[in-house]
Amino acid sequence: MRSFEYITPASLDAALEVSTRNAPHVKLLAGGTDLLVELKHTANGPKVLVDLGRVPELKGIEETSAGLRIGAMVTHTEIMESRLIAQHAPAMIAAAVTIGAVQTRNMGTIGGNLVTCVPSLDSGPVLVALDALVTVAGAKGKRQMPITEFFVGPRKTALSPDEILVDILIPAVMLGRPASFRKFGLRKGQALALVNAAASVAVEDGRIADTRIALGAVSPTVIRALQAEAIVTGKNVGDTAALREAAEMAVTEARPIDDFRASAAYRRELIAVGTFRVLEEALAGATAG
Amino acid sequence: MSERITKEKQAEAQRLLEAAPATHLPAVSPRLLPEVPALTPEVNKQTPAVGQRVSRVDIRSHVTGATRYIDDLSFPGMLHCRILRSAHAHAKILSIDVGEARKMPGVVATLTGDEIPVNSFGSTYQDQPVLAADRVRYRGDGIVAIAAETEQQALEALAAVKVEYEPLPAVFDPLQAMEPDAPKIHRNSNVYTSKVIMRGDVEKGFEQSDRIFERRYTTQMIEHVPLEPFASIALWEPDGQLHLYSSNGRITLGRADLARTLGLPMNRIRLTATIIGGNFGGKNEIRTEPILALLAGKTGRPVKAVFTREEEFIASTTRHPLVMDYKTGVTSDGRLLARSVNLVLDGGAYASWSETTVGKASILAAGPYRIPNVRVEGHAVYTNKTVTGAMRGFGAPQVAFAYESQMDEIAHSLGMDPLEIRLLNGFEEGSASHTGQLLQAVALKDTLLMAAKRSGWMEGGR
Amino acid sequence: MHHIEVTINGVLRRAEVPPETTLLSALRDSWGLTGSKLGCDVGDCGACTVLVDGLSVNACLLLAVQADGREVVTIEGLSGFEYLHPLQAAFERLSSYQCGFCAPGMIISAKALLDENPAPTELEIREALAGNLCRCTGYTKVVDAITEVCRDHANAVGVEESA
């Protein structure tokens, strides 16, 4: 690893100040499970590394009037162990347990996962299915945006170089909404997703009143399968044929690629299977409650 | 047998744990050593070792983290070495400039190929340079080695080395490498070792056959991925003896190669192999040892080098990918009459253990089946890829994949049970192998039947 | 250079390290604790697993400066001259390792599991060890050893409760 200056700011303001002052030669360190690997393999590393590990504003999970606020530096293990998340957004736990292995989840953070923004990021689909908002802070203050706008492309987010991801908000209206997550990898542990999928549903009087379907690893960023959602919304809860139709539609909305992990054809099969299962599971959650 | 853990014992362990210093000897108290049953052979009785469950002799060290692998050793004044590897798969080296690198902080010495007394090594053919001096043949070729006070300094100095290349056309496919107009990697032909096995008359066998089956099978390159990356340390003893510590699995061959490259008699080279953190065939030849020996000689200090994980992938050896063309003639009731096999082994940039691998793959290529007419031809071919060498079975697993796949295909096509066709054709007591060896204690069919029984094959449990 | 103070296996240790030093390098090079191994250097193999404030982490992906002020447990902290950790004793009884390079990290991961969950199922054991690779592929005896420790522990607790 090339040498760098290491700074540990104790507040968000201090972190913003030091990263703005040293831009563009700065990297922000969250859990480090991706960043350290990158730094070990690059010839041109950052001059300054800002460790966000001691910034209190980026930590904690809390329920507010706006919804459920999850600090960007919350680790995947903290998500798995959070009673608030288990109560309000358990699909986030289903996604967190599929990330890396125990060690990775103890170190890696949800904010780091989102900022790295690889197409296969496992935190993404559930957050998209729950209409999550993200807050970013910069020298000019804070701004909030839907998570779908935060994802711009592979390894590219809407963060400008002098901004820091502060937290993720699951809006109050989405809390407790039945949702589900599925990941397909080559192995269970330490595997990147070939395809991951999430769905959330709102059921009223036996009818599906609202649907979100999110797919990961099948397009440059996490996408919503809007046409598939339209097929499901308005149907009766027991309409399995509609779920199958939606699953086939989701395949046409994605743009999977061939790579050394899987062929595009195989990924298309997985999209159909994954979409069907997450819808089925989300609906099972809706009717069980 | 197993020791019960009572609360008192746990509390005692916890108390001792808390009182323990951060570094200490691991559990070596004699009363804690595992009981080893006495193995006294009795006359006219089978040795009691057979069927006994015994503990590994090194297991105490393993579970306490006390096993000393190479990278766990260090010596006073020890320097760290990193190696610059080729930027091209195939190129002429026009110039190497280490002037700037020598001035970098912490750098004590550099080494290039022209400073090596005999700059070639190899377990069969000595076709591989210790450090490439005039030509690189794959991305794993080392060009410059740097010894510095710290590994970080050595790494940073590598970036200051300037190498000018003239890229040459490269070939990455072994079949293309056999074409007459393919880029030549070492000499006139890229085919560097071959084996032919003939028994009976395959053409006649095919004529007599009711059905002919033909198919090409291929396997991929596989890295051993030992958890411990290859590591060595070199130091010169005051009596003029070179002492190397290395995760090298073949120390006698290693000493011979070292003696040759360094121009030293073998009796002045001591090669200490510690416990190896996984070998699987990938640590069966010297790698950095001669480089470290020369750097240690230049600096008068011990020098250590540990492969990065990337080097382990590109600069160690791998398993040969094979292209295997099988043609088999059978009677309509499933008897094998003739089999011809053509094997092409992707040999990578240097020979390493390819000769052994071609030999073993060819000898085993027709499978453990009684076939009166056999012809096998195997060739190892140079390509501009990572060197292929020894790995678990020396070519045997690759051909097993091919011939067993074809047996299944034949059985399926003839409407036979895959077990039945193997029992019909399999080697028996006294069968001759395809190279004419009379076989004794042949348990093939017994093993197949036992496996079939245990898996419920007969009852359709497949 | 950064001055760091880390409690390692119960003892406060100090070092001056450049910022790019990983915790693994500091353990091995500054403090001579070579039990934790460098396998892949990218957080895949788990040979460098240590506990930081009770949680298992890849010491190759944590900077030494990040460990400043925290508590670290390494394989060396589990045994002493006169005692072995029950996990070490079980791994020894079953000869669970071949080359042994993965052992220190795997034992630390097993300890992290049992500290949280003294009666894991086989699936939970396997999932807890997903970040620890053994290339000799001897996972079966590793799972067996951990299962044995849990059973012995349950028996010991059971005996005392009925007494």
What does it look like?
The complex is a heterotrimer of chains A (289), B (462) and C (163). With 289 residues, chain A is of the alpha+beta class. Chain A contains 12 helices and 14 strands. Chain A folds into 3 domains: 50 residues, Uridine Diphospho-n-acetylenolpyruvylglucosamine Reductase, domain 2, CATH 3.30.43; 119 residues, Uridine Diphospho-n-acetylenolpyruvylglucosamine Reductase, domain 3; 110 residues, Enolase-like, domain 1. In chain A, helix 11 packs antiparallel against helix 12. The longest helix of chain A has 25 residues. The relative contact order of chain A is 0.12. Chain B is α+β, with helices and mostly antiparallel strands and 462 residues long. In chain B, the strands form 4 sheets. Chain B has a 7-stranded mixed β-sheet with strand order 3-5-1-13-10-11-12, with helices on both faces. A 5-stranded mixed β-sheet of chain B has the order 7-17-16-15-8, sandwiched between helices. In chain B, strands 4-2-6 form a 3-stranded antiparallel β-sheet. In chain B, strand 15 and strand 16 form a beta hairpin. In chain B, helix 10 packs parallel to helix 11 and helix 11 packs across helix 12. The N terminus of chain B is likely disordered. Chain C is built from 5 helices and 5 strands; from the N terminus they run E-E-H-E-E-E-H-H-H-H. In chain C, strands 2-1-5-3-4 form a 5-stranded mixed β-sheet, with helices on both faces. In chain C, a hairpin with a 2-residue loop joins strand 3 and strand 4. In chain C, helix 2 packs across helix 5. The longest helix of chain C is centred in the C-terminal third of the chain and has 24 residues. Classes of the chains: A alpha+beta (289), B alpha+beta (462), C alpha+beta (163). Chains B and C meet through helix 1 and helix 2 of B and helix 2, helix 3 and helix 5 of C.
